[in-house]
Amino acid sequence: MLSFVDLAARPEFSVSVVDCLDDHRGWKGEQPREDVRLVLVQRGGFRRRARGEVADLDRTVGYLGLPGEEEHFAHPAGGDVCTSIGLTPRLWHAVAGEAPRLARSSLYVDGRLDLAHRRLLAATRTADDVAEEVAGLVAEVVGQVVTTTVPDGTGDRALVARARGVIGDDHPAAAGLIPLAELLGVSPYRLSRAFTRELGVSLTRYRNRVRVGRALDRLERGESRLAVLAADLGFSDQAHLCRTVREHLGHTPTALRRLLGANRSTTPTQECAASIPTYMHE
Q1: Each residue of 57-71: pLDDT tens digit?
Q2: pTM for this model (two decimals)
Q3: Which of 7, 148, 173, 241 has the fewest CB atoms within 10 Å, i.e. the most exposed one?
Q4: Residue 53 pairs with which residues in a beta bridge?
Q5: Cβ atoms within 10 A of the Cβ of 66, count?
Q6: Residues facing residue 58 across a β-bridge
Q7: Where is the HTH araC/xylS-type domain (predicted)?
């Protein structure tokens, strides 16, 4: 028996935790799927057979599943818990190339891939950087199993300048790493890495810095409807707005209105203090 917990869902990818309670030594077939899957084990282990190859999977070995593959699984050691990252073929090809040649379908979970997995799971608990962590994890996989050449990072400065222009213009594609990369005609991983190389901050943090600046403009003019402000600026909700503003500026939006001399009457539902967690997110 399988149970699924969805951690993140976007048009281009999904992240789920799969808890398998099966305990059988024989092979059981699964229906072919249309997405690309990266499966990394959190606990326990199982066996997979695909394309005539058998792999024993545990926390040190995961697998890459391709669309249309016939897969069979066995669980001779009992149940397991895995992270399953589903990618659209379009996103996979944006990172791996249009016709990637694969050395193998099993993934050795070295320290870098293990860390990328853990960072992704941590990111699903925030609202900002899941796409960047997915791109980073996919890039680790591509570097390990794809034998074709992936474009290098030449031209990063011009790419970042173009991306900053799109973000500054508040283009709809600027709302996320993947649509922005698609608009600019590059892979999400390359765009993410380019920002870190050129500016020293992630694309998510840069985009949030621009949003925080716009929030300051609105707060200075006396905006008190924080839920409306959050929606207008592209935050997932009021709590996300409050957390991000405090992370960048050290103050809640309500406190900033006072500091900027724009204090007006506010209701308790407009305060942020109750929605600010005790930890800080990067």
Answers
A1: 999 999 999 999 999
A2: 0.74
A3: 148
A4: 50
A5: 18
A6: 61
A7: 161-259
